[in-house]
Amino acid sequence: MKLPKFLSGNLVLKITSLNALVISIRLVVSVFIQRLLAVAVGEAGIANIGQIRNVLAMLTSTSTLGVFSGVVKYIAQFKDDQPELTKLFSSVTLFVLVGSVLSSAVLYFGASFFSDYLFSSQDYLYVFQLLAVIVPFIAVNRVVNAVISGLSDYKRYAEIELISYLLGAVVLLIGLFRLNLKGVLIAIILVPVIQLLVLVFVFGKTLKGYVDFKSIKLNFNYRKKLLAFTLMSFISTFLINYIELDIRSLVTKEININEAGYWTAITFISKNYMVFATGLFTLYVLPKFSNIHSKNEFKHEVLKIYKSILPIFALGMLLVYLLRHVIIQLVYPDFIGMEPLFKWQLLGDLVRLASVVLAHQFLAKRLVKSFVFTELISLVLFFVLTKLFISYFGTEGVVLAHFARYVIYFIVVVFVIKYYYNTQSKEQK
Questions:
Q1: 8 A C-beta contact, residue 79 and residue 85
Q2: pTM (2 decimals)?
Q3: CA atoms within a 13 Å half-sphere pointing along the CA-CB vector of 164
Q4: Domain segments of the chain: what residues?
């Protein structure tokens, strides 16, 4: 009787298990789609798809000026305080307007530059012109997702994720069969529109209960509070995706585009299992840490999260490693060159998971200096170590750098959090 009671009372496991169900369905669909893509567009096509996905990830930050984590934090903090929420969304709306207009303008007028820079060709102008039109959808989608996360509405989150993914998959398949790689890229760009439509359909009525649209007046009341998250988002979302773009270009230049395709493929696999944790971070960890104010509470919560999810992830990653040959043949036929990449990618992701749980304290407490310091160390390490290792280990050097970077990052984050609580205890005395 103890185990069922433990499971029923453990919100971490509830969110993780519901996520697992949704993501398992996603995984089955993803395997099918990734196999079709690998066969249809090859290693070079997979590398190009990786470029567009990185650009989209960067736009989730620039189109909202990085307010996502800030909205999550303040929704969790003020969800029963309507006047405060109105102030919050008055500022958020202004951030979104500025971010969307600037992002759209840069993409539209810089389409020629971006096409040449990312694809060494002028054949992809349409990609960036279409992205310029889609930017507002990306921004609104991101903000509404932040509201769901701040409310820890994990059931609605799972429903939206599943429906959006399945509809996006259908559009991608249509694009693939009608226009090959061009159709795939267009479909990927259209996904934020699909996600927003699903969000409005599933979450629209609930959203109105928290956001009084008639009372919103454009102002910067939350300027200082939200700008801190803008800086943190720029580093954690924009810069990491920019570095991934640069590393993919480096692998293409130093080795060849096929090797860039292998690395992109292993990162796709990584993102498929790491997404199990994404919902947990936004729906549970960030809102929970926002309301924790003592060192002992924090330690207790971190240990609870570690005990709940680390063994599950470790077992899952071990299975992925043992079945790597099957996965390659099933998902990426003939991508044999990616086999040596599994070990270091998986080890790096396990350490990354443990690290990111701790690092969410910086977001929850708006510890901008700590966040910037640790993230810059992580990014610089990844970039420098990749450049160093690629000369000796080829593409395997990129995933080796990924592992080494997160080991050092974990140690640094632990020391920074210890310093924070030691300083807090001294100030209280």
A1: yes
A2: 0.84
A3: 24
A4: 2-428
